[in-house]
Amino acid sequence: IIVWYGDSQALIGKLKKDGPERWLMRRLQRYSVNLPRHVVDKLIQSGEIQEVWPGIFAQAASTLYDDEVGLTLGNELNAEQLIG
C-alpha cells in the first residue's frame, strides 16, 4: 500500500488521474509498505485503504500512518496477525 508521507498524496492523485506511469511508480515506491493480503483485506473493509488503480492500494484514513512511528494498525491487528 502507498502511505501518506511527504508528497505522496499529490503523487497518488496523479496516479488516480493518469494511471501507473513508470516514473510515477518509481517515485511512489519509497512510500510503499508491504502487508499480508489478509491485513489488506481488513484495511479495505474498515475503509483505511482504497484501491486507487486496479491492484494498487493507498491510504485513505489519516490514522493509518504516523510520521513518527510509521504504520499504525490499531487494536484490531496485532503483531501476530502480521506474521503470515
What keywords describe this structure?
single chain; 84 residues; alpha+beta; two-stranded antiparallel sheet; two-stranded antiparallel ribbon; 38% helix; 15% strand; globular
In brief:
The chain is α+β, with helices and mostly antiparallel strands. Helix content is 38%, strand content 15%. The chain has four helices and four strands; from the N terminus they run H-H-H-E-E-E-E-H.
Order of helices and strands: HHHEEEEH
Q: What are the low-pLDDT stretches, counting only 5+ consecutive residues below 50?
A: none
Q: Which percent range fits the helix content?
A: 25-40%
Number of H/I helices: 4
How would you portray this structure in words?
There is one protein chain. The chain is α+β, with helices and mostly antiparallel strands. It has one domain. 38% of the residues lie in helices and 15% in strands. It has four helices and four strands; from the N terminus they run H-H-H-E-E-E-E-H. The protein has helices spanning 8-18, 22-28, 37-46, 79-82, and strands at 49-53, 56-59, 65-66, 70-71. The strands form two sheets. A two-stranded antiparallel sheet has the order 1-2. A hairpin with a 2-residue loop joins strand 1 and strand 2. The longest helix has 11 residues, at 8-18. The two termini are 17 Å apart. The model has no long low-confidence stretch (mean pLDDT 90).
Topology:
Elements lengths: L7 H11 L3 H7 L8 H10 L2 E5 L2 E4 L5 E2 L3 E2 L7 H4 L2
Antiparallel strand pairs: 1-2, 3-4
